[in-house]
Design a protein that fits this description.
With about 110 residues, the protein is an alpha/beta fold. It is about 45% helix and about 20% strand. The strands form two sheets. A two-stranded parallel ribbon has the order 1-2. The relative contact order is 0.18. The model has no long low-confidence stretch (mean pLDDT about 80).
């Protein structure tokens, strides 16, 4: 299974002073679909594949997919921010590792 998560477009200020930019959200969704297509095309023939696109905060969305999909292993990438940047910026791989009910393999 391949999963891509498109984050929600959240306004910085409360309505009516600011609103999400629909064009940016559409661009993110399009890029997510392209990533799934490219990943699927790179698999050898005969490999079973289910591609899933989700919206929302990436860490929780991935954990939700793990719980719903009945998976036994999750492979997630890491940008390698390090401990300090991860504390400030957050870390999807750390969230998945801490909340996943199954084994997680983090790849740099």
């Amino acid at each position: 299974m391949l999963t891509v998560v498109v984050p929600d477009a959240r306004p910085v200020l409360a309505e009516p002073y600011a609103s999400p930019l629909p064009s940016r959200l559409e661009e993110l969704e399009r890029e997510g679909a392209e990533i799934l297509e490219q990943a699927a095309a790179s698999l050898p023939d005969g490999v079973a594949l289910e591609a899933v696109a989700r919206k929302g905060p990436p860490g929780p969305a991935i954990v939700e997919q793990i719980e719903e999909g009945g998976h036994d292993l999750v492979v997630v990438g890491s940008r390698g921010f390090g401990a300090i940047k991860s504390l400030v910026l957050g870390s999807v791989s750390r969230h998945v590792l801490e909340h996943s009910p199954v084994s997680v393999l983090i790849v740099r």
